């Protein structure tokens, strides 16, 4: 059966509803590719081909053009069958790359990139932040200069998570320094194996280098690898950034799992506890549950899968909940909490780990209020876009970027 063929109910001639359709396709996938006997790449490839990767994406590009709400049904059904999880190895590709490509990419780019991204055969990274441009990412300095059918890129990016594992990067570069900062940017897909791309590890407080510095020296990018129009890089970047907040802060783990579940494991392993400690743990569990329910509501309000400012609420709340839970877990360990079980391995991990043990989670979660936009920036977004408060003072908004003083 072709993947686009409509599935019919028992009553001949009558289309069954969308949920029944995706459940039927899930059953078919599990029957044809039993997870226990199928390699993750093979399973995920078949999931993509059946339109069950991102169900709201167009048919032929990993979706069925249906409501994104149905993705939860698919994920739960496949999860119960112990099917491989798609996003864990490629969090940036799945969380931000795919929605950006499907929104702004050409058909050729969608065909080329989405499937191997979903199967994790090609890992992606995000090349936005620079030493002089983090919160103010639109002020970035990396240059791309047109040279025939190509662009010549020079500059430096920083904090690039998983660049050392990546096949492709989402790169924003300045193509018109005479335009105001938001208007002179262009967005590219860059081959991380191209000559002139150099990736150097940056070690974190956990002793691991999840992220990197990336240097570009005369790197050539074909114009065909541009995403969106020349000068429209900020508009394309907003799709990445809005999805980044949801990808980091909008997780919906099953009730009592995730950080809340890990806290309960530590609580149980270290008990019995006095009433004050029980009260502290209970309050944290409730905060995690409120965040989970808020994220469910936010995801159900999104009819087309493009997040709005509600993503900033989840991102901001998640950072504080994670920090407080991991701090409590370390306290529960008592003196043992001061020991770091993994030591400082100075390793370059293959993916990002938020909770390996309470001590690692305590250290790693410090970054949650920085990565994907700081808590202060989330508050600015919410103040301006949700509460309608006066905007942040922006003196450089309409000035040519080249005239704006920078360090
Ligand atoms: C673990 C981790 C992973 C990351 N991964 C990536 C990645 O893969 N790709 C990528 O491109 N980047 C990545 N980043 C970078 C991240 O996006 C930036 O660190 C973040 O946007 C903040 O920028 P900055 O570090 O330059 O701090 P700055 O922007 O210099 O901010 C310094 C301080 O000033 C505050 N501040 C700045 N401007 C304002 C304002 N207008 N109003 C109020 N307060 C303000 C900030 O909140 C912060 O407290 C990662 C960061 C971390 C920690």
Question: Could you characterize the architecture of this molecule?
Answer:
This protein is an alpha+beta fold. It has 11 helices and 8 strands. The strands form 2 sheets. A 4-stranded mixed beta sheet has the order 1-4-5-8. The radius of gyration is 22 Å and the shape is globular. Flavin-adenine dinucleotide binds next to strand 1 and helix 11. Residues 125-126, 128-129, 134-135, 159-161, 211, 367, 370-371, 373-374, 376-377, 380, 392 line the site of flavin-adenine dinucleotide.
- How would a textbook summarize the main sheet? 4 strands, mixed
What letter string, H or E per element, gives the SSE order?
A: HHHHHEEEEEEEEHHHHHH
Percent range of helical residues: 25-40%
Arithmetic mean of pLDDT = 93
Which ligands accompany this protein?
flavin-adenine dinucleotide
The poorly predicted ranges are: 1-15
Provide the β-strand percentage band: 5-15%
C-alpha-based Rg, rounded: 22 Å
Overall geometry comes to globular
First and last CA, distance: 60 Å
By secondary-structure content and strand pairing, the structural class works out as alpha+beta
Physical arrangement of strands within the biggest beta sheet = 1-4-5-8
Number of helices: 11
The total beta strand count reads 8
């Amino acid at each position: 059966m072709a993947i686009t063929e409509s599935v019919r109910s028992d009553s001949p001639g009558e289309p069954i509803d969308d949920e029944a359709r995706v459940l039927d396709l899930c059953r078919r996938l599990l029957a044809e590719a039993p997870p226990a006997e199928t390699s993750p790449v093979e399973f995920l490839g078949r999931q993509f081909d059946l339109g069950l990767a991102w169900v709201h994406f167009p048919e032929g590009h990993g979706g069925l053009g249906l409501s994104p709400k149905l993705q939860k049904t698919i994920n739960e059904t496949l999860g119960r069958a112990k099917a491989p999880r798609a996003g864990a190895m490629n969090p940036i590709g799945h969380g931000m790359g795919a929605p950006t490509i499907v929104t702004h990419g050409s058909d050729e780019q969608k065909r080329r990139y989405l499937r191997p991204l979903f199967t994790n055969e090609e890992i992606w990274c995000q090349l936005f932040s620079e030493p002089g441009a983090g919160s103010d990412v639109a002020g970035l300095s990396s240059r791309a200069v047109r040279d025939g059918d190509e662009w010549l890129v020079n500059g430096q990016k920083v904090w690039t998570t998983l660049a050392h594992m990546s096949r492709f990067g989402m790169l924003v570069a300045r193509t018109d320094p005479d335009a105001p900062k938001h208007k002179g940017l262009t967005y590219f897909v860059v081959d991380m194996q191209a000559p002139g791309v150099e990736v150097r590890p940056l070690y974190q407080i956990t002793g691991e280098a999840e992220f990197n510095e990336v240097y570009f020296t005369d790197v050539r990018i074909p114009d065909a690898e541009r995403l969106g129009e020349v000068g429209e890089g900020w508009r394309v970047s907003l799709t990445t950034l809005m999805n980044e907040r949801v990808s980091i802060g909008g997780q919906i783990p099953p009730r009592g799992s995730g950080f809340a579940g890990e806290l309960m494991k530590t609580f149980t392993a270290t008990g019995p506890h006095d009433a004050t400690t029980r009260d502290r743990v209970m309050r944290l569990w409730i905060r995690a549950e409120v965040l989970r329910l808020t994220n469910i509501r936010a995801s159900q309000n999104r009819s087309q899968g493009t997040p709005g400012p509600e993503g900033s609420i989840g991102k901001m709340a998640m950072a504080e909940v994670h920090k407080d839970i991991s701090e409590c877990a370390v306290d529960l360990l008592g003196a043992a909490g001061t020991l770091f079980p993994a030591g400082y391995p100075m390793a370059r991990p293959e993916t990002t780990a938020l909770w390996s043990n309470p001590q690692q989670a305590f250290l790693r979660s410090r970054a949650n209020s920085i990565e994907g936009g700081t808590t202060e920036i989330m508050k600015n977004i919410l103040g301006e876009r949700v509460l309608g408060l006066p905007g942040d003072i922006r003196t450089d908004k309409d000035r040519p970027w080249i005239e704006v003083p920078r360090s």
